[in-house]
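Researcher: Quick test of sequence recovery. Tokens follow.
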């Protein structure tokens, strides 16, 4: 029985759980996609496109260069494998989690949205659902163009439309069928998005749903504290702890002490490899770096997203990706896809203290792969950061 783990052991367990032991296939297939999704569990969605949309990057980090059509097929074509929902935050999740999320949807119905800010407008809600039923998958802009705007009717305007559609989505009254080329959400009826065999499944109890989400979080983390497991699917404290207690009692989770951390929980199926030979650029929205305290404790890596920081106050750059080499985060790079110039721009590159001698060589190779996957023919390095002068292309 494992009772204690070193930080290095916990780090390797975490990376193995996230799929960094899996070999990269020459040509990733839908089977590769499914395997990778089973490791991450969810793919966070974010609109920032300075490099690549957030949900595409964790797949590249684990699979290597792949056809992004795989993700679109999984999300939009039958048999649908993933669907967008407020699972971590906005994220793709396996479609079989739809029944598990019913209690979350019920909570959002009661609170009137994620943050309880949507006023009750039954006529507007009914009209939106009726329009979607008649028109098929539609964006907020489509619906705004197609419905009456009269204030005497039911107070139609763009911001109200968008807020109510988001409420109906979080409440499970509408689902996301896909996105258009402008990244606008296409809303549709759940029965036209979720496979009928999934909709036919019974809704689990709150306790059953909580155990399933904690179980999945534990598998994706390998080992984690209570707050780590709670954060993965953004769960309430009490429900998370009860689920953890139940899974410990059942033997699925094992209580362990991790050097320098709070008491943690090891999933019984977690692998403890002797070494991890990973090489990957991690998106700011990658599950490995979601929980900042966990990232600092396991990797000795302090990381903050500086997108919303005023430019003069940024320390490392606008869109900074940690660089994972073997089982350590050894550097960080501020990247931009200059599509008009057909080049990947390295705005800055920094080595972490103790970075190995081959960091620049390995990072250069990974940047070349990233540029190729993005369809960019060149890599340009700007002279900012101690690692920048050592990169070679």
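Model:
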């Amino acid at each position: 029985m494992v009772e204690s783990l070193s930080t290095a052991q916990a780090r390797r367990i975490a990376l193995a759980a996230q799929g960094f032991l899996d070999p990269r296939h020459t040509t990733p297939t839908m089977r590769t996609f499914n395997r990778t999704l089973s490791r991450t569990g969810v793919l966070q969605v974010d609109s920032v496109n300075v490099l690549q949309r957030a949900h595409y990057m964790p797949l590249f980090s684990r699979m290597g260069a792949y056809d992004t059509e795989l993700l679109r097929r999984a999300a939009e074509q039958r048999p649908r494998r993933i669907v967008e929902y407020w699972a971590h935050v906005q994220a793709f999740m396996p479609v079989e989690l739809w029944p598990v999320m019913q209690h979350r949807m019920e909570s959002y119905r009661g609170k009137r949205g994620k943050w309880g800010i949507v006023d009750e407008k039954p006529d507007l809600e009914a009209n939106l659902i009726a329009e979607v039923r008649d028109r098929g998958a539609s964006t907020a802009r489509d619906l705004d163009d197609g419905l009456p705007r009269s204030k005497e009717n039911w107070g139609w305007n763009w911001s109200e439309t968008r807020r109510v559609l988001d409420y109906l989505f979080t409440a499970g009254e509408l689902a996301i069928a896909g996105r258009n080329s402008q990244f606008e959400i296409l809303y549709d009826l759940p029965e036209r998005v979720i496979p009928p065999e999934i909709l036919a499944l019974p809704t689990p109890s709150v306790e059953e749903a909580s155990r399933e989400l904690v179980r999945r979080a534990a598998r994706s983390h390998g080992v984690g504290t209570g707050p780590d497991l709670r954060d993965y699917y953004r769960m309430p404290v009490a429900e998370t702890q009860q689920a953890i207690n139940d899974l410990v009692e059942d033997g699925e989770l094992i209580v362990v002490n991790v050097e320098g951390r709070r008491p943690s929980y090891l999933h019984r199926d977690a692998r403890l490899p002797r070494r991890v030979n990973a090489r990957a650029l991690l998106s700011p929205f990658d599950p490995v770096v979601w929980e900042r305290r966990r990232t600092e404790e396991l990797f000795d890596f302090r990381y903050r997203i500086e997108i919303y920081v005023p430019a003069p106050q940024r320390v490392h750059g606008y869109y900074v990706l940690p660089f994972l080499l073997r089982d350590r985060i050894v550097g960080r790079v501020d990247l931009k896809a200059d599509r008009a110039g057909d080049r990947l721009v390295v705005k800055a590159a920094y080595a972490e203290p103790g970075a190995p001698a081959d960091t620049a060589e390995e990072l250069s190779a990974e940047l070349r792969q990233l540029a190729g996957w993005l369809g960019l023919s060149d890599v340009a390095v700007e002279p900012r950061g101690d690692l920048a002068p050592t990169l070679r292309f």
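The two ends are 49 Å apart (CA to CA).
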